[in-house]
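seq:
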Amino acid sequence: MVVLIAALHWLFSGPSYGYEVSVTSPGETCDRSRVLYLSEETGQALSCASRWTGNQHDTGTDFTGDETLRILSLSTTLAADGRLDDSDTKKIDDLAAQIGKAHTGDHPFPGWGLLALKGLGVCVGVVVLDTVVTAAFGTPQRPNQT
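struct:
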């Protein structure tokens, strides 16, 4: 039963896509993985979510190095007045969504094929589990009620 619940949770939780940006204050906790965290003061990537590997900027997200640099270029330009306000954040989010959409297509959930495969796997697993339990313990008998 626990396996079935875990499988259903995995099936319906869906994959996590790393095309997300969060503008926050330096010193705040970067508590979600695969999110590009930006400083609301400078527009730069916060150190908790960013590191340099070779020549490519690696932020632990699905953005490529060039895409990350496009976002950072926009965010630092918008923060030139000293702070990223709500309209600046919307422009950054729109760019991130545009980049994500280029990778995932027009589908709000790009993993339809994967979802179908997961569903089929869960169904097959339930049938196999039922067959194994029935073979091992036999078919349950109802007590006579007289």
